[in-house]
Write a structure and sequence with these properties.
Layout (H helix, E strand, L loop, with lengths): L8 E7 L6 H9 L5 E4 L18 H6 L2 E2 L12 H14 L4 E5 L3 H9 L9 H14 L1 H11 L1 H5 L6 H14 L3 H7 L8 E8 L3 H18 L1 H11 L12 H8 L5 H24 L4 E4 L2 H13 L1
Parallel strand pairs: 1-4, 1-5, 2-3, 2-4, 5-6
Helix pairs in contact: 3-4, 5-6, 5-8, 6-8, 10-13, 11-12, 12-13
Length: 307
């Protein structure tokens, strides 16, 4: 645990894999300390995608201050850079000193605490023209073009790295500058004047899998299928949220590609796979303090805020 100076605000970063009770734990902790909750979940930012994201109910949201929930329309762009900017703005502007950051999107948590390298929003028109050039002349042509514009940037990547070559050219066309320059200009530092602790509940894989199965079944009972039906009437099927776990599988069912039982089983399987990927990331983070019991976690965090 970090020793905080009096003039520093404090973050409790409550993280872990999906279905480990993070949201409920955050609410219980919030009842004990004067704080606000900042969601670090990449799906909760989208309006109307509620059941499949396990979004807190309207009643909970009305009673407890949550930030970065329901802030963009489903067809709007949102990324880790925007999360970093908005979450840091919340902390800077608030009169409170304590914040509970809760969620499993580790890139969002990393962006808040450590910062990100750069942000140049995508430009669909420019990107399409580059892709068309790729289709006409091939990857060698694009890489040669990049070397002419930015030899230092080209040296940073493989001559076969199609995605990065396209992206580097796109950045060059948007900014008129070399990627190597943009990287240096757009760097963002670690969060300032804030102390933080990272905590999580240590729950074994079998228990998590059981909770995943129960949650998915409850989502179906709560009306996930009808939610997707209504959302498909309003939004293009290609928007990002429709590609997330739960929504993607129900779309397959509504398109008659799988049965409902098959869709439900797919959601469970893919959620378990997602939890496994989360565990791999979390194991690498030595800052996280793990607790076997929620009471111990809450006691630790409560003492931290008053230290």
């Amino acid at each position: 645990m970090k020793i905080s100076e009096n003039n520093k605000k404090k973050l409790i970063v409550l993280t872990g894999t999906t279905c480990t009770g993070k949201s409920l734990t955050a609410l219980n902790l919030n009842d004990l300390i004067s704080s606000e909750i900042i969601s670090a979940d990449s799906m909760l930012v989208y309006r109307y995608f509620d059941i499949g994201t396990a979004k807190p109910t309207k009643e909970i949201l009305s009673k407890t201050k949550h930030h970065l929930v329901d802030i963009v329309d489903p067809d709007d762009e949102f990324d880790a850079w925007k999360f970093m900017e908005l979450s840091r703005e919340v902390i800077d502007k608030s009169n409170l000193n304590n914040f509970i950051v809760v969620g499993g999107t580790q890139l969002y948590i990393k962006s808040l605490i450590e910062g990100l390298t750069f942000d140049i929003s995508k430009n669909d028109h420019i990107r399409k023209s580059i892709v068309k050039e790729l289709e006409l002349y091939g990857i060698d042509h694009l890489y040669s073009k990049l070397k002419e514009l930015d030899s230092e940037g080209a040296a940073m990547i493989s001559s076969n790295d199609k995605q990065r070559i396209i992206r580097y050219l796109e950045i060059n066309y948007i900014t008129g500058q070399r990627v190597s320059q943009v990287f240096k200009m757009k760097s963002n530092q670690k969060i300032q004047n804030v102390d933080y602790v990272k905590v999580g509940l240590s729950i074994n894989r079998e228990s998590v899998n059981t909770m995943i199965n129960k949650r998915v079944d409850q989502m179906i009972r709560d009306g996930l299928v009808q939610e997707v039906v209504e959302l498909k009437k309003r939004y293009n099927k290609k928007i990002k949220p429709f590609n997330s776990i739960g929504y993607k599988e129900i779309c397959l069912y509504l398109n008659s590609e799988v049965s409902l039982d098959q869709a439900v089983e797919l959601i469970k399987i893919r959620t378990r796979q997602f939890a496994k990927r989360q565990r791999t990331w979390l194991r690498k983070d030595e800052e996280i303090k793990w607790f076997d019991h929620v009471e111990d976690l809450i006691n630790f965090c409560t003492k931290y805020t008053f230290s």
